[in-house]
Amino acid sequence: MQVHVDEHTVLVVVDVQNDFCPGGALPVPEGNKVVPILNEYVEKFRKAGAAIIFTRDWHPPDHSSFNSQGGPWPPHCVQNSKGAEFHRALVLPPGAEVVSKADKKDEAYSFFQGTDLAREFHHRGFTKMLVGGLATDYCVKETVLDGLKHGFEVYYLDDASLGVNVHPNDSELALAEMVKRGARRVTFSDVVTIVKKKSA
């Protein structure tokens, strides 16, 4: 399968933050291993002049998802903390677009939740989303499903996403749900850059 990168395509890099990588508060096993391939996607999109968006959890200290507030997770990605920073090896091009989510008390696995981004994406002419990052079974999955719900053609980056797997088959179930809803699984070799012809 091939997917063509053009002005209607956006790359969404989901939550590659210190707290979701080894040594963080809520680590995805070997989560840092998605960074090199994500950097390759970023470079391919940058060279094509296509849009790239980096999402991040950006929680207040009393976020509803924290176990101290009755939620399921240990405190993580607290605003302005080291854990909330992007992994140091992740390349953010100059002027990179960063979208913060779950920055109030409400939970928001998908960056569409509680924002106007679906309308903004349509306004900017985006029709295709390529989504990868952390974690497959939570924020990546929900971003993919919301993208489909809002009418976008969505591609899951199979080689640039990993799951936390609270239960051993969580990522497998997430993948099955994404594909059932219409997402397509691709890898780097499937992504083809459209080079615009220069006018004479």
At the fold tier of CATH, the topology name is: Rossmann fold
CATH class: Alpha Beta
List how many beta strands DSSP finds: 8
CATH architectural group: 3-Layer(aba) Sandwich
- The share of residues in helices is 10-25%
| Poorly predicted parts | none
Given the C-alpha coordinates, what overall shape results? globular
| Separation of the first and last Cα atoms | 33 Å
Descriptive overview:
This protein is an alpha/beta fold and 200 residues long. It has a single domain (3-192), classed as Rossmann fold, CATH 3.40.50. It is 24% helix and 22% strand. The chain has helices at 35-48, 117-123, 136-149, 170-181; strands at residues 3-5, 9-14, 51-57, 97-101, 128-134, 153-162, 184-186, 191-193. The strands form two sheets. Strands 4-3-2-5-6-7 form a six-stranded parallel sheet, sandwiched between helices. A two-stranded parallel sheet has the order 1-8. Helix 3 links the parallel strand 5 (128-134) and strand 6 (153-162). Helix 3 runs parallel beside helix 4 (170-181). The protein is globular and about 50 Å long. The model has no long low-confidence stretch (mean pLDDT 94).
